[in-house]
Amino acid sequence: MRYPEFLPKKGTIGVVAPSFGVSGFPYEDRYHNAKRKLEALGYAIRECEHLYGIEKAASADGRTRAEEFMQMYLDDEIDFIISVAGGELMMEMLPYVDFEKIRQARPKYFMGLSDNTNLVFTLPVLTDTAAIYGSCFGSFGMEKWYRSLKEAHKIIAGQQLSQLSFPRYEKEGWPPENLDPYAGFNMRRKVEYKSLDGKDHKLTGRLIGGCLDILVMLCGTRFADIDPFLEKYREDGFIWFLESCDLNVVSQQRALWQLRENGWFKYCRGIIYGRPIDSQEFFGVKLEDALADSVGCLDVPVVYGCDFGHLPPGWTLIAGSVATFEKEGTKGKISFELR
User: What is the DSSP string of 145-192?
Assistant: First the structure.
């Protein structure tokens, strides 16, 4: 696995819009505040050309978005790349991304959440380059950074490689349209890690995954040629980190079944499942039923309610790294080895 250098002091952050661009209140306000805060820490910010606006659910056509990402990746003056936002149609850029050039280039971290799974998953699998599943650029526009954002900064700067679970999380997700754009999380729900077997667990394996909505879409395409990756790292085993945005619990069950039947969970040592936006019972199926019926047969630990996904705060996960995850009671922790 190729591990890029972390973001250096006074380094340059490249901000790309591979899915949504920045558009309207409160997103533009949040973005500009994030830029001010990161510049105050000494970083230079380089913006892609089509950073602002959304037309037909994207910042630009797929080819343009891919070209702007590749320009950032191959520019030696850019130290770290972060997506400005999530979105809906990032997959449109994948046919125009030159994964072979990325494989041959100096490795560089890309970070993003949700729709950015399209790169956070494909970069380790197709180019053997670690990527980061974590906050998009706009999240750093929070006026008073919560611990999750402080830790995200430390991780991308190479100052921290472990995280503990959080006490509470935000059920609705940020931001309601009438909210102060610089406000912090509205955390009202208690974080409770649970496992299908009711036991505590300690897992070690190579970390891979992302948003289930995107992974099930990629499954069966040339952008999810996962068998060579699984075979290369079979001795490490794998921890899959998974979460969901738009899928109800039955849709999540179907998606997990599809990944399982396509052999994705070969050499799996455990599954850690984040907080899906929709975890409501559907036709009598609860989230734990969906997990048990789709991946319970793998005979590996399945821990859910974990600190990542669309309901913040969330961990910053280094996809491609060798992770150690521990569940103790209702809490958890994770650490990363870059080997």
Answer: --HHHHHHHHHHTTS--EEE--SEE-SS-S--TTS-TT------EEP-
Task: Please give the pLDDT value at position 25.
Answer: 86
Task: State the fold for domain 168-337.
Answer: Glucose Oxidase; domain 1 (3.50.30)
Q: What integer pLDDT is reported at residue 180 of this predicted model? A: 86
Cα gap 120→133, rounded to integer Å: 6
Q: What pTM value is reported for the model? A: 0.97
- Tokens encoding 232: 């290369």
- In this structure, what token pair is assigned to residue 92? 């449109």
Strands 331-337 and 162-164: antiparallel
As a whole number of angstroms, the distance between CA 214 and CA 13 comes to 25
- Amino acid symbol at 165: S
Q: What angle do CA 323, 319, 96 make, to 5 degrees?
A: 165
pLDDT the model gives residue 171: 81
pLDDT per 10-residue tile (average), the chain, 339 residues: 98 98 92 98 98 95 98 98 97 98 98 98 98 97 97 98 97 65 91 98 98 98 98 98 97 98 98 95 97 97 97 97 98 98
CATH number of the 12-161 domain: 3.40.50.10740
Judging by beta carbons within 10 Å of its beta carbon (0-12, 13-18, 19+), is residue 10 exposed, middle or buried? exposed
Judged by DSSP in three states, 285 sits in: strand
Domain ranges of the chain: 12-161, 168-337
Preceding peptide of 301 cis, ω within 30°: no
